[in-house]
Amino acid sequence: MKKLMLLWLLCASLGTQAQTYQADDVTGTWLTSDKTGQISIYKVNDKYYGKIKSGSSKEHFDVHNPDPQKRKDSLIGLQLLKNFKFDGEGEWEKGTIYDPKSGKTYSCTMTLTDKNTLKIRGYVGISLFGRTEIWTRIR
C-alpha cells in the first residue's frame, strides 16, 4: 500500500511540474496571431525588446502614431515591444506594447506556454482589462 501511495504521489508531482524557462528563451522571431507580421524579440542589457521584422499589412507607415512627426516612419523596423524584464518564474513583465493599428501603447506581459508559443497580454491599468494574443515561434 505504501509503494502504491508513493507511486501515485510521484506521478501526480510529475504531472504538475511547470516548464522552467531561462530569460533568453523568449528571443527569436515570432509570427503574430493574425499571421500578418513577424516580430524579432531581442535582448539589450537585461531588458527585452521587439521590432517588426516583416508584415503584410496594407499600411506601410505608422499613420496612427500620436506624434505627427512619426507618421511617415516605416512599420518595418518599428520597435513595438519595450523594456521587458524576466521575473525568474517564466514571465517577462513591466514592458509595453505599441499597437500600430491604433497608435496606442499598453502595459504588457509575455509568457511562454511552451518553447514555441508566446502569450502576449496587453492591458490598461490592470491585466484584467486587456487582450491576449498567441504568437508562434518561427526561429
TrEMBL record:
Pfam families: DUF2147. It comes from Paraflavitalea soli. This is DUF2147 domain-containing protein. Residues 1-18 form the signal peptide. Residues 28-137 form the DUF2147 domain. Keywords: Signal. InterPro entries: DUF2147. The keyword Signal applies. It comes from the Bacteria.
